[in-house]
Amino acid sequence: MRLIVVPTRALVWLSVAPLALSVFVALEPALLKSVLLLDGTLLGVALLDLAFCLRRQLEIRRTAPDVLSLKRRNLVRLELSSRAARRLRVEVQDDLFAGADSADLPVSGEISARGQLTLTYHVEPSARGAYTLGDHHLRYRSLLGLWQRQLRVAANWPVRVYPDLKQLQGYDLLARDSREYALVRVSRMKGGESEFARLRDQVPDDEHRAIDWKATARRQRLTVREYQLESNQNLLFMLDAGRMMTGIEAGLSRFDHALNASLMLSHVASRTGDRVGMLGFDQNVRVFVSPGGGPSATRRLIQAAYDLHPELVEPDYERAFSYLSSRVRSRTLVILFSHVIDGTIGELLVRRVKALRGTHLPLVVLFRDTDIEALAEPGSRLAPDLYTKAAAAEILRNQRAVALDMKRAGALVLETDARTLTGKLVGRYLELKARNLL
């Protein structure tokens, strides 16, 4: 605990009065005793007010989640207790960790005599990893308002910043209404359903031909037959953590967009009974989680990758695919996230994906660069010169060539921007399931 006491504006203005009177002492020496008496009185009152202020009158305790969601407003609660015999107006500022922000701080409120007060604020982290919420800084005024006490209270609250978990909670809310696929607006897909799962009440999005009329007559309310897709299949997310995935789009790196989409799809897939795994790599394989199922499947991926960040290095696709082949033998939907603008890297990636096709089903997710597309667009005024416009067009040509070569090699390709990645990816997965391609 560290104590700092500073004079308030009221004390400063009160100090000006005897200073102004001292000017007249030169003209009228008889005023000297009055000025000294005023100085002494003011000094005594200020010291007395300071003495009462030195006693610690507040206790504070923080309550925060151990796990925070990336780029979300996470609630932090502060519990204050007062030992003072009067009301206090208190202001609190918390030390946040690097990469965290709060539009609510500082927070303030009035706490009654020997009472309690709860203050709240939200912290929004901008990077995943392990961090610590730091010390509290409290401010409140003395009894007469002549001093402001600033109190620093040591406090360390370890937190882990995970990818966006609240999107999973939003999916669960939809699932409770038996509308699991509403997130991506997937209509009846080619291939239809696989096997009967249950009867349930009709919701507005259901097709009329799904109604079970016998069950409807028996239950006296509209009832539909729900089918489930084939379960116990493998998914594995390959996350490129190289330099091209460090680019920022919509406030997050491409890698973070890929990780968020992977976790959402993992959540969806595990609910259908599939097994999910993950491989994260740059020059080396940095994370590997073998495909597994059950309620904790997504949690395993989160715990493995929450502190995995892209690095400014070239990814080693050869090593990553060799590692995958040695560790995963049964047929798996392998979803690779990458951003390729170099023709040589694209050729290497196409070759490895083609070799993978014999055992697994590869789905390559290629990020579109909306900024580059805007520069290359005919008539665009964003490009400062023809050279920049030509360079942007060349990058887009290389990307289209890589995507076309991958399709010819037998891979499935999903080209998307970061903002729409999650919805498109889940939709493609559901389509593959419905078509029994796994």
Helix content: 25-40%
- CATH architecture group name of the largest domain: 3-Layer(aba) Sandwich
Strand content: 25-35%
Q: Name the average pLDDT.
A: 83
Q: How many domains, as an integer?
A: 2
Spatial order of strands in the largest sheet: 19-18-15-20-21-22
- Gross morphology is elongated
Biggest sheet, open or closed, and with what strands and sense? 6 strands, mixed
Specify Rg, calculated over alpha carbons: 32 Å
Query: What is the CATH superfamily classification of the largest domain?
Result: von Willebrand factor, type A domain
Tally of separate helices: 11
Q: What is the highest CATH level, the class of the largest domain?
A: Alpha Beta
Q: Which structural class fits the helix and strand makeup?
A: alpha+beta
Beta-strand segment tally: 22
Q: Report the uncertain regions.
A: 176-192
Distance between the termini: 61 Å
CATH topology of the largest domain: Rossmann fold
What features would you describe in this structure?
The chain is of the alpha+beta class and 438 residues long. It has two domains: 1-25 and 36-162, Immunoglobulins (Immunoglobulin-like, Sandwich), CATH 2.60.40.10; 234-434, Rossmann fold (3-Layer(aba) Sandwich), CATH 3.40.50.410. It is 35% helix and 30% strand. The protein is built from eleven helices and 22 strands. The protein has helices at residues 9-25, 32-53, 166-176, 213-219, 254-271, 297-305, 317-327, 343-356, 370-376, 386-408, 421-434; strands at residues 2-7, 58-63, 67-69, 74-82, 88-94, 100-101, 107-111, 116-125, 129-133, 136-141, 147-153, 157-162, 195-201, 223-228, 234-240, 248-249, 252-253, 275-281, 285-292, 332-338, 361-367, 412-416. The strands form six sheets. Strands 19-18-15-20-21-22 form a six-stranded mixed β-sheet, sandwiched between helices. The protein has a five-stranded antiparallel β-sheet with strand order 1-11-10-5-7. Strand 20, helix 8 and strand 21 (361-367) form a beta-alpha-beta unit. The radius of gyration is 32 Å and the shape is elongated. Mean pLDDT is 83; it is low at 176-192.
